[in-house]
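input
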Amino acid sequence: MADFLLEIRTEEIPAAALSQTRGQLADGFRAELDAAGFTGAAVAVASTSRRLVVQVSGVPERQPDRVETVTGPPASVAFDAEGRPTPAAEGFARKVGLEVGALERVATPKGEYVAAQVRQEGRTAAEILGDAVPSVVAALRFPKTMRWGTGQHVFVRPAHGVIALLDEEVVPLELFGIRAGRRTVGHRVHAPGEVLVPAPAAYRGELEHRKVILDPAVRLTALQERARVLAEEVGCRPHSDPELVAEHVELVEYPGLIRGEISGTYLELPREVVITTLRHHQKCLVLEHGDGGLAPYFLAVIDREDDPQGLIQQGNEWVIGARLADAAFFFAEDRKRPLAELVPGLERLEYHRTLGSLAAKSERVGRLACRLSELSGAVAEPQQLRRAAGLVKADLLTHMVGEFPELQGVMGGHYLRLDGEPEEVWIAARDHYLPHGFDGEVPASELGRLIAAADRLDTLAGLFAAGEIPSGSRDPFGLRRAAQALVRIVVAAGWNLDLASAVQYAVELAAEVVDGDLQDISRAVIEFLSERVRRYLTDAARVSGDTADAVMEAGWTRLPSLLARAAALEEVRAAPEVRALALAFKRVRNITDGQPEAAVDPVLLKEPAEADLQREATAFHDVLEKHVAAGRVEEAFAAMGDVAETLDRFFIEVLVMTEDERIRLNRIALLKGLGRDFLTLADLSKLQVEGGEK
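output
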C-alpha cells in the first residue's frame, strides 16, 4: 500500500469557498478511487488560505487484472446459416484480440449474441491518480472564478505550484500548465523559502515546522485559546460569534490574533452598531465585560505569529476608528428627526413591481395583524397594531441601515425607543424580522409576534399572487424561509388559529392589487405551507415521516393540536394495539372510501362481532369527545387502542361485503363512523407497520 499527496498552491482563496471546496475534493477523490476498485483507501482533505491539500493512504500498487465479457454483434449476423463466421465475427475477433474460434454465444434479453472473454490488465496507481487528479479538480465549482496568464486557465485563484507524490515518486500530471513536482513553500512571512517534500508522510511536519498549520480544526482551537488569553489579560471575554471565528480559520495559514483598543466614546453607540461595524469592515471580534457590556477592545486575526512592531495593531485601530466615526455620524444624522417622520418616504420604496410600495405592504400587514389577533385570541389593540405595522419598515430609510442592511429592524427599535414610542412598539420593530427560519429566537412580545407573522403571511400571499412561486432550488424572495418563520412563530406563540383562514384573508388583501383566482392562489399557498409544517414536524419536532403524514391527514392547520397529536402518536405507535389498529384501519379506509354517508341501524347488526363493535365504537366516540375537548390527546390515543381487539375480531368473523345490500351498507356505515372518529386524531393507515403490505 502507498500514500498519495496532492497540493495545489494558489493565491489567497476567499474564506467562504474553502469549506465547500474541501467537501468537493473529498467526494471527488472517493468516487474516483471507488471506481478504480481502491475501496479501502482513506481520503483526508485540508486547506489553508493559500493551498488545497488531499492525502490518500492505503493505495494499492495497481489494480488486479480482471476478465470482462465483451458483447459483439448478434449471433445471426456473426455466423451464416451453415455456422461459418461472417466478416462481422472476424472484425469483432480482431477488435478484442482473439481468434474467431474463441468467441462465445451468450443469451441476452434481446436474443443470442456473440461475446468474448477479454482479460484486462490492471492499471497502476500512478496511472489512475494521474487521470483522476485533473478530472476531480476540473469538476470543482466555486461562487466566482478567475482567469490568468493568457486566459486559458480558470480556477478560484491563480495557481503557483502543484505537488503530486505517490510515496517517494512524482506522479506525472499537469494542472493549469504546471507540471507536478515535490516542491512547495513555507509560510509567506515566517518561512517563505522553498521546501522539498521527500514523501507524503513528511509533508505535514515539514510545513508545521515552517508555520503552516494545515488542519482547520487545529487552527480553530488555537484561535479560540489565543482569544481567551488576550481577553482575560484585560478582564474580558470574546463576544460570541461562531461564524466570524470560522471565517478567521479560513483566512490564515498560521492562526494569529492581536488585541487593539477602541475609543470609549464610540461605546455610547448601540452595541449592535459597534459589533456590526467591526465585523463588517474589519472582520474583528469585540470583547465584552462579564455583564455583557462592550469593552473598549477588539481582536483582529493575523496570518502570522506576532506583531513585533505593533504596526498591524496600529493600522487596525486607525481604520476601526474611522469606521466608527462614520457610524457615529450616521447615527447622529438619523437622530435629527423622529423615525415616524420618515414613514411617508416608504411610498417611494418599491416592494414589488406588482404589489406596490413598502407603504402599501405596511398597510396590508397592519390589517392582517389585526385579523390574526382575532383568529388567534392574541391580546393586542388594533390601533397599536396598525401603528406598529406602519413604523417597523421606516428604518430602511435611515443612513445607518443604508450602510449596514443587516441592522434593519434593530435600528428601528433603537430609534423608536429613543423617540419615546411605547415599549411594545419599539420591541416589535426590533424583532419583526425574527426568526430566520425554524431556528432562532422569536419576537419577544405578542405585538411583535403578530406583526412578524403578518409580515411573512403577506409576503407569501402577495408573491404567490404575483407569480413569484419557488421552483426547484429557485427561491429569490426567500419564501421557504418566510414560511418556516411563520410556522415557528405560531408554534412558539401557541396560537390556536386556523392557518387556512389566515391565508385566505391574506390572499384577499393581495387581490386588491393583483388579479388572479383567489381559490387557486389560496390553495397554492396552503399547500406550500403544509410542506413546511411537515418539515417542522420531522426536523424540529423530530417525529417520523409516517407519523407526520398520519396526523396531518387528520388536519394540520391548527398547529398546537397538530404537535400534540404528533407527539402522542409517536409515543404510542410501537404499542401492539396501535400496530394492530394501523393494519385494520388500512382495511377500513379501503372499504369505506367513496361510500355514501349513512346512519347505523342497530336492528341490522345480526352478528355478535358487529354488535360488539357498534357498542365499542359508541363508547369510543363519547370518550373521544371528552378527551379532545379537554385537550387530553394522549388519553384519546389510549382510548383508540381499546377498540383494536374488537375491530380485529370483526374482520375475522364478519363478511362486510355480503350480498345483502342493506346489511352490507349498514356494516360499511359502522366502519365509516368509526373511521371518521379515528380521523379526528390521525389517519393510522399512513403508518408504516411491519407486515402492513402483506
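quick obs: The chain has five domains: 2-62+124-209, 66-120, 216-334, 340-540, 569-686.
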